Amino acid sequence: MHTAPATSNTSVTRTLASWLEELSPATIPEEIRTRAKYLVLDGLGCALLGARLPWSVKAHDAITAIEGTGKCTVIGWNESLPPNAAALLNSTFVQAFDLDDVHVEAPIHAASVIVPAVLAAAQQEQPGPVISGHDFLTAMVAGFEVAPRVGLAMGGTHMLTIGWHSGAIFGPAGSAAAVSKLLGLPADQIEDALGLACTQACGLMSAQFESMVKRMHHGFASRSGVLASYLARQGFTGIKEIFDRSYGGFLQMFTLGSESEPRYFPDEVCKELGETWHMKKIREKPYALCAGTHCTVDCLRELQRLYPEQMAEWRRIVKIEAEMARAAMKKVGWAPQKPATVTAAQMCIPYAVALQVVDGEIVPGQFAPGKLNREELWDIIDKVECREVPEFDHSWAQRVKVTFEDGEVIETVVKAPRGVNPALSNEEVLEKWRSVTRGVISEERQREIEAVVLNMEEEADVVGRLGALLGPETVNVLQ
Fold first, then answer.
1. What confidence score (pLDDT) does residue 5 get?
2. Phi and psi based region of residue 203 (left: phi greater than 0; alpha: psi -120 to 50; beta: remaining)
3. 130 versus 21: which is more confidently predicted?
4. Nearest to 357 by CA among 287, 415, 304
5. Helix (H) or strand (E) holding 74
6. How far apart are CA 340 and CA 345, in angstroms?
7. Which of 76, 149, 208, 353 meets the CB 3.0–4.6 Å disulfide criterion with 474?
8. Rounded distance between C-alpha atoms, residue 230 and residue 227, angstroms
9. Domain boundaries, the chain
10. Which CATH class is domain 12-284+424-470?
11. Is there a contact between 116 and 226 (Cβ–Cβ < 8 Å)?
């Protein structure tokens, strides 16, 4: 017999929907509002950088060929689309270079889901009552907060171990929460929107090996929340109590492959709502690589600092061993095949090791077509061995050991990568924004966007200003 839905008194879905209805600028701490603005800025920087990359161009050409024009800005293209398509495409741009944020416990690239959805919905509502900067930011916070909570209810990083692209699964609820809040939906319709969004969730982690679709997975989540919220506003009923049901319920179904018991944790959805802000655990990434490779890179950076002469003689290296937690091993501990695609290069530890060892840095230009498959990189890739060690499970910690021709061995352990612990400060996020967008847009446009985003609560028309500043064409820095 299938379990009936929970009552409204015990339903975590209903509790979440009611909290979202009541969420207001006054209930969000200033620290959280400020951090949200820097998350938005970081996401927009990634979108501007990613808008004209080769795979983004292919996505743009395919989507604009089947979609009509609309009110919603296509970042960097001087074009507009209907809201669903704009959210999908702009999210794809944010994810285009794997430089966007990640939540450290419930892996999701939050800005890539939330920012395009809120921007598209806000533009769709114009002309109409002007959406205040306060309301725009509150919608962002709603999405940034809900998506990781759903992820934690599903076991967080364990979803990667199962084989789901975790953020694409957690994301639809976050997008629906954000857009529903922007549209001012009541709790009943927010609940509908959550149910409508979650039933669209998708994202297979096998996308990391060679396909371009990995860049688009969070876009599916962003689009799902937009569609769900507009359906709900029109009175289209969604799945009620989507996080509570057993038969066919969201948490129940997407954790079927879990090796843990219990498989899911419904209480995490609403645990300490409004008191503990999970947005604090969203981290901006310093390297254009999957977050799971960052600790490896930092281990190598530390070895290069401690042993500069030895590491400079990298052609004498005979073996590099990288040890990590199980989730990291499943996600990034695989060996790429030659020739590597950009997606594969950014998603595996051996390639990250080769870049840091050979070039001594990780920067966007290394992924240009002429540099992607250099022979010296493959010489190092072939010497990398990755393995899972139980002592690092449920942590970011990694160990790297380097062996040289003469038998000398050097090694180090890093407990968490830069960007995770310590997190990038707001000032460092601003520096990253300026670095990422340098050469992509003019310095004047750069400064105008950061002024609008960081002062959005004082902006008279934040939606109109952002649309005008984000729309003009950008430069592909990988050409």
1. 52
2. left
3. 21
4. 304
5. strand 72-74
6. 6
7. 76
8. 5
9. 12-284+424-470, 291-414
10. mainly alpha
11. no
- Contact indicator for 284, 42 with CB cutoff of 8 Å: yes
- CA-nearest of 341, 456, 346 to 44 is 456
Mean pLDDT of 11-17: 98
Q: What is the pLDDT of residue 9?
A: 61
Two tokens, residue 420? 């995770």
Amino acid at 445: R
- Which residue's entry shows tokens 């603005």? 37
Identify the CA nearest to 198 among candidates 234, 238, 164: 238
Alpha carbon distance 427, 236 (integer Å): 44
pLDDT digits (tens, 9 = 90+) for 150-192: 999 999 999 998 999 999 999 999 999 999 999 999 999 999 9
Tens digits of residue pLDDT in 294-348:
999 999 999 999 999 999 999 999 999 999 999 899 889 999 999 999 889 999 9
Q: What is the DSSP string of 278-337?
A: GGGGEE--SSSS-GGGHHHHHHHHHHHHH-HHHHH-GGGEEEEEEEE-HHHHHHH-SPPP
pLDDT in tens, 261-292: 999 999 999 999 999 999 999 999 999 898 89
- CB count, 10 Å around CB of 430? 17
Q: What are phi and psi of 368, to 5 degrees?
A: -65, 150
Quickly count: other Cβ atoms within 10 Å of residue 431's Cβ.
12
Report the candidate in 361, 393, 342, 358 with the shortest Cα–Cα distance to residue 297. 361
Q: Which amino acid is at 225?
A: G
Rg over CA atoms, the chain: 22
What's residue 3's pLDDT?
A: 47
Residue for token digits 């725009």? Answer: 136
Distance CA 304, CA 359 (A): 11
Identify whether the C-beta of residue 455 lies closer than 8 Å to the C-beta of residue 136: no
Residues 96 and 215: beta-carbon distance below 8 Å: yes
Taking all residues of the chain, what is their mean pLDDT, rounded to a whole number? 95
Kindly state the average pLDDT of the residues 67-71: 96
Architecture of domain 291-414: 2-Layer Sandwich (3.30)
Nearest Cα residue to 413 out of 314, 300, 320 = 300
CB 374 within 8 A of CB 357: no
The conformation of residue 204, written as its DSSP 8-state character, comes to: B
Quick one: what percent of the chain has pLDDT higher than 70? Answer: 98
- Contacts of residue 292, defined as CB under 8 A and 6 or more positions apart, other chains included, come to 324, 327, 328, 331, 332, 349
Backbone φ and ψ for 69, nearest 5 degrees, come out as -75, 160
